[in-house]
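the two lines:
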Amino acid sequence: MSDLRDMFFEECDDLMEVLSTGLDDLQNGNGDAETINAMFRSVHSIKGGGGAFGLDRLINFAHAFENVLEDLRSEKIEADPGLIALMFSSFDHLSDLVDAARDDNDIAEDAGASILADLKQVSPPEDGGAEEAEVDSADFMPLTLDIGGDNDFGPLPDFDLPPSLDLDTDPAPLDDLPGSDGVSAFAIEFSADPGLYTRGHDPALLFRALADLGDVTVTADTSNVLTLAEAGDALAALNWTLQLIPNDGVQEDDIREVFEFVESQCVLEVSTTVVEKAADIDLPELPTLTDEVPAPDEADTAADVTAPTTPEPAAKPAIKVVEAKPVAGKKSEPRNSTIRVDLDRVDRLINLVGELVISEAMLRQSMNELPVSANSSVSEAIGQLKTLSGVLQESVMAIRAQPVRGLFQRMSRIVRESSRTAGKEARLLMIGDSTEVDKTVTERLVEPLTHMIRNSVDHGLETAEDRIKAGKPAQGTIKLEAAHRSGRVVISLSDDGAGINREKVRKIAESKGLVRPEDDLTDSDIDNLLFRPGFSTADSISELSGRGVGLDVVRSEIQALGGRINLQSEPGKGTLMTISLPLTLAVMEGMLVTIEGESLVVPTVALRETLQPGQANVHEFCEGDRGLSMGGEILPIVDLGEALGFRRQLSDLDNQALLLIEGESGRRSALAVDNIIEQREVVIKGLEQNYQSIPGIAAATILGNGKIALIVDTDQMIPAAGKSQLSLLKGQEHAEVA
Amino acid sequence: MSDQTNEEQTEDRIEIVSFTIGEQAFCLNIGHVLEIRGWTSTTTLPHAPDYVVGMMNLRGAVLPVMDLSMRLGLGKTVPESRSVIIIAHIDKKSVGFLVDAVSNILTVNQADMQPTPEVSSARTAAFIRGVYTMDDTIVRAIDVHQIMPQDNLVAA
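prediction for all of em together
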């Protein structure tokens, strides 16, 4: 039972996502009939599942929500902004209910009562409309009676909905309710195109999957089967007629879902029919499916199929309710086939592959130490091993990648809630929500992003009156954008609010002793004061933010993910916060270098060029500062060994190699190192797990010889604009918030 | 790590791993000890406190090695082949402690732990929970939570 329960809640997550996507589409005017259908189905499935677990409040609410969607579907009402807003709040409440049910929490008795009332007002449950909309289902009701002539009210399949629902006018499609003395069944006509077999699908497996949904009777039509000699090139000749007496709650969509992956390679017709409850009187005992349906391994094995001689289903389809609508989501992106895997298993696999890559590197290294003659034949195999383990690693990492859509959708709720609390008007614009990011990253971004969005609404956006005064639309826009950029994921959050009030920030910082009045601060210095611990600019501690945890918490969360956060603001125009994160948490390309005998890795993403310093292009400045002239520009030279405290300042750079790096902000500098060894892929090992973050170091990795090499955080090695020294060296607060 | 409650709940007898640093004997609750390894070279960490020797590779995991002697104010250990690293799991982190030698695994009576002598310096008071008396030597029980590098020592 608990497994089923878990499964239900997992499904709920998916269903809520569909619902949320639908709502967004409606709001943006992209919605069509299919959008509403999909939303309806989601709510309906949640209601159905809720019924199975006796979640009364969930059912009641889903029911009211469903009524509204039903009316919307039948175009009795229109999706005006008011209704969409109501549906958004309904969505929020529904997800609260699901969460509460999942965690066995109680939520306040009156929570959502007003939403429920509003929903009921839009679509009164007594309204016969819901029923009328189910015309097709309602139509077959009399027929059921006709067929099951004997008034034998046989035992009905368990039907778990609470009694309250029975009193209600339940708009659930009646075809999933058992008829009074007949059982509604599905008649499925299925014929496969040759392509189905060549893609490795097997009808027997599909039928077996159907068997999970209810009692299945399979009849094969072998009339078209050719002899092996005639069959020639992969012609699919078998057609099947199936009759499914569904288990409780099984819908036509569930059936279609079974065939989802072969949709384009078959002809599928699903219709409802009614069979007598005691169907087994008419149907002979059937051998198990496995024996019954031969599995055509290849298309042309169809020839030796022995057709089962099952009689035609007892009742011919009473009414053919062939669904006029295309299967769910034709317009939206095609649904991908998925399996649910425990995250621990994936992580274990990733760790193992990481070890494999290290072992492979160690093997390669020891090969290189052998005399050349010994390894010529082996080196090719080793090369293949390298390629394979690389591909393997990539594929394994891809398992963890997930679109940020779910994360963004949660944020859309935060915007709604926080703007309501703050009494401001705001909408969330989401861009690039299909960008894939490591699952851990998306999970751990929830908190920081929530906080940032609350900040934007609370401090960034102005009130509607102020906005109108400033010549902006009354409704503020918060834009959440995700994109892949040069091997990293960049998530930016911008608002069109008032921007940072630097004067105020500075005043507060001074009053809190963070800066001195005589300090000369650039605009970006002031902006970055916001990330200092314990900073809050709100005049009053509002419900939203200003709880004492400030952006410093956001920053440390982002840093823990190997990311960094940047802030730009323009008074009157708005604020832009950019979070840049590593794409995966596990591998990267890096340049192996040595300094004073220590091996270090410089990430290739930041690397632009390697060069030898010459007398002509290196210029000395005060205190041993050096600059490198490159194409008319003078770039700062940073001695990596000195920056990391491995050695004192070098008297000259003659024996050094220079790595030209470019940071996130586009600024560049040259790193001086002793030797450049080679470029290689390294497995990232976090330092925070067992230790803590180290300034100037992003992570560590294990080399082929088992030694640990540190990975340089290049962005911290680029002196900030206007600073004479690396902040790192002086141990000051970093100029760049990172 | 709810060793506090563990120590209170289990019967009074606990097992400890005793080891030496210089002339002094110390111990850790065996529950914290994952394994004991010989000295392997470590990778130096920049901007690390002086008692952090570096990072070591333990079958693919990267963990810091702390010079316990340095941490306790007993001077820097020069690692040699006889030196031992005790791998311990403390507060969800794995850490290696560089010590001179591991001497024994002992079963002691929890109640026999005596408070640290009043003469203690601040460092002793912070890092030593108490002492067990064994024959004519005393074994100092290390407070593992205090001994770990504290986050504020290296401000990011």
